[in-house]
Amino acid sequence: MGGLVGQELEDARARAQDDHRALRSRISRLSDDAIDLILRDARSHYAWTDKPIADGVLEELYDITCNGPTSMNTLPARFVFVKTAEGKDRLAKSLKPANVGKMMGAPITVIVAHDMDFWKQLNVLFPHEDRRHMFDGKPEYCADTAYRNGTMQGTYMMLAARALGLDVGAMSGFSNAIVDEEFFAGTMLKSNFLLNIGYGDESALFQKLPRLAFEQACNIA
Fold first, then answer.
1. Angstrom distance (rounded) from CA 125 to CA 185
2. CB 82 within 8 A of CB 108
3. Measured in whole angstroms, how far is the alpha carbon of residue 94 from the centre of its chain?
4. Contact 193, 171 (CB under 8 A)
5. Running DSSP on this structure, what letter comes out for residue 218?
């Protein structure tokens, strides 16, 4: 698939620039309430109500997530929405005992994974310059790029879920090897982390933990 060239490319760039100027003119920043919802006052949840999540919400969740930036638009993340009893039982095999109840109680647990063969679609995803040669035969570079950008996409999904009114609880504490064998055998997909999503049961929350101050975590060079 070839990219746009000549006047078509110039027209497409001009439209993109105009669209972004219009967006910035319409929305200069998020409201404080919106920032509170997605980050400042948001909480990680590990107990859940039984309110279900419609498949259409999952499609909207992905549609928001996939618009987050990745290097060269690589988009290596792949997501498995585990919601059936069979799927939950398969996933439970990988979890440490303390995490089984957290996962089983969530309406949906997302396996955030990345595709080591992501680069084979760069002619479509990055059409104005075919960069597949940068990754072909370079497994370490592929793994580094896939893991970094797939992790970012998993984070975008957390923020997108909160923006849609869902609650989230990210989890490690499981065997990646077991997940990969159970869900990705025979593929080039590798699991990264798990993300429980649903509508949280606030009665299980503790107080919010401390954060580092600007002076402790930041430096201006």
1. 26
2. yes
3. 20
4. yes
5. -
* Both structure tokens of 217: 């975590």
How confident is the model over 122-154, as pLDDT tens digits? 999 998 889 999 999 999 999 999 999 999 999
Residue 197, number of CB atoms within 10 A of its CB: 28
| Token pair of 46 as six digits | 């590990």
pLDDT (tens digit per residue) in 105-116: 999 999 999 999
Contacts of 167 (CB under 8 A, 6+ apart): 43, 45, 48, 161, 197, 198, 199, 200
Q: How many CA atoms lie within 13 A of 25 on its CB side?
A: 6
Buried b (16+ CB within 10 A) or exposed e, 46-62: bbbeeeebeeebbeebb
Question: What predicted TM-score, i.e. pTM, was given to this entire model?
Answer: 0.94
Neighbours of 39 (CB within 10 A): 12
Q: Enter the tokens of residue 115.
A: 């595709």
Structural domains in the chain plus CATH codes: 43-203 (3.40.109.10)
